[in-house]
């Protein structure tokens, strides 16, 4: 009994890991994840843009890039990708820690199951508004620009009408302008890249233009982080007897397993929100042909017309990308926070 009481006293005396340390652990994890997964992202992009059948598959694409451009070419675009993940994970981990502190019981210092869910949801909402939505549009714009450039011929030209500038959402404006730019040479395109396009939209239409269609993104990210943080904690407790803040540092391979399993929960839970987000962002509002009037209407319409399984379209590619990334990120983050606990507790 005495040993158990001493152990409980030690746990009570341990200082909780501060939010800034959680943010640092997330940012370091994001950098490592970006370095590990960037070659996959480069190969994916090359395959998506390959309209002439140059690449015969994933391995052939990777080997071709290495032979023709060198190994370093597989890490092209690492800086923006790493910056995105660093900012996203720093905000996610730091804000989740802050929300957890707010939801803890003042007397016992314990965090309830509901408090953990709400903390994750709050972190996901904040991440969606500050980081994800603007980057989603930047990526969408960049992909559309690349497709437009690949389809262009120098001779044909079409003008952009002034009425399009007054369109209501960022993607609507970009989508229509890109469609009307068909036939222009890349040098004559009005939008030179995602950053230039975003700054032009802000200058002409205001900052809120970058957050058009944020509702399904907020729901997707909020639900995803609520599920992921809760699942990670539960898996650590069940598999490794690791409780948050107990001072125990699990092995890197254990963090990898927990992170991978937790990373599978989010995409399964958020499939409908992800499908709806894509549908709402892709539809044109320039004419009277708007199919989906909002998030709830889109879910209902897709279910009625295409069936329940349609709400989880694209789940397999997400499961191939997200769980490995979460495994890497949590492996690094757990070691960083574990080092802090050992050194300062």
TrEMBL record:
Localized where? Mitochondrion membrane
| Keywords annotated in UniProt | Membrane, Mitochondrion, Repeat, Transmembrane, Transmembrane helix, Transport
What protein is this chain from? Mitochondrial succinate-fumarate transporter 1
The record ties this protein, via Gene3D superfamilies, to:
Mitochondrial carrier domain
Tell me which Pfam families the record gives. Mito_carr (PF00153)
- How would you describe this protein's topology in the membrane? Multi-pass membrane protein
> Could you tell me the superkingdom of the organism this chain comes from?
Eukaryota
Instruction: Identify the stretches annotated as Solcar repeats.
Output: 17-102, 150-238, 250-339
Q: What terms describe the molecular function in GO for this protein? A: succinate:fumarate antiporter activity
Sorted alphabetically, which SUPFAM superfamilies does this protein's record hold?
Mitochondrial carrier (SSF103506)
**Keyword Cell division included in the entry's annotation:** no
Cross-referenced PROSITE patterns: SOLCAR (PS50920)
Q: Which family does it belong to?
A: Belongs to the mitochondrial carrier (TC 2.A.29) family.
One term under GO cellular component: mitochondrial membrane
